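Entry 14. Ran structure prediction on the chain below.
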Amino acid sequence: MSQYAASVIWSPETRRHDPRHEVWVGVPTEGTERANRVDAILAALRADGHQLIESTRQPDDALLAVHDPELVEFLRTAAERWAAGPYDELVGQQRVVPYLFPTPAMTAGLPTRPAVAVHADAGRFVYDTMTLVGPGTWEAARSAVDCAVQAAALVADGTPLAYALCRPPGHHATPAGFGGSCYLNNAAVAAATLRAAGSSRVGIVDIDAHQGNGTAAIFYDRSDVRYGSVHVDPGAGWFPHVVGYADETGSGAGAGATRNLPLSEGTGDEEWLAAVAELADWVADCDALVVSLGVDAAKDDPESPLQVTADGYREAGRLLGATGLPTVAVQEGGYHLPTLGGLVAAYLAGHATA
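Output, structure tokens:
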């Protein structure tokens, strides 16, 4: 293995999630978060000489430290509940899709109970119509958590850089909810693992094209985990739309421990890297670092509102690697298969050679 290679933790189980399609503004559309993302990344990292380690099942401790047990149980059982219902026969739908969302607009202060029908109960946890659950979703999402925990454990034991090839991604998963193609929050689980292993303060830097509202929510009132994100401005109409603004800086004990750096559509390397550098300086006095490594800010990505290049990702790796912090890089977005693996490899090369 090259002296600059990272430990790459992955699982073949992460291929099992097959959303088949998304439902956007009421219309089924082809999904971009596909299983072959795993293979595209593996091929590039294998070619670069990284050490590939297949994950093993990890305890639930870190998972339950960041997620409500009811969410975990829903995801574990939702596909079976759906398959036991009439949905495939009646409408040909084999994936769990929410039918209603019991928001305050609906309940209006009335006492509520969990819905019996899974198509109604789903809206208690999922906050969009694009993040569907099917056979294999739980197994893939739980295996992604295993990758994050194992990578964090390696870093806690002295490995300077470990990469968790998590799929599906996780940074949009909140304490008790999921959405944005994310089910369980792998970056938050990695941070919780590092904290449990003795890191007094963990920094999370999120370089995905979209703000990780789930990670922000999990740590918003805590001072032991800092969350910083550079992302497209949600005020320009981009996901997550209602959060991710610069004036969201944490609350209570976490006041000042959240930093959002929203950028205009079309932003390229120079301004994006200036924001990454600002976040690198901000977390430099932490004990360990988690990088939410979304590469969907790349100019060729179908989900990208930004114009970051492979050289930009390599420099981002160098900037964050120069902090000298032991680091877990956790895969988030990135959907352009011809360039996906190369972008991840570029970041890891920059980080490892800083």
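The two ends are 18 Å apart (CA to CA). Will compare against last week's run tomorrow.
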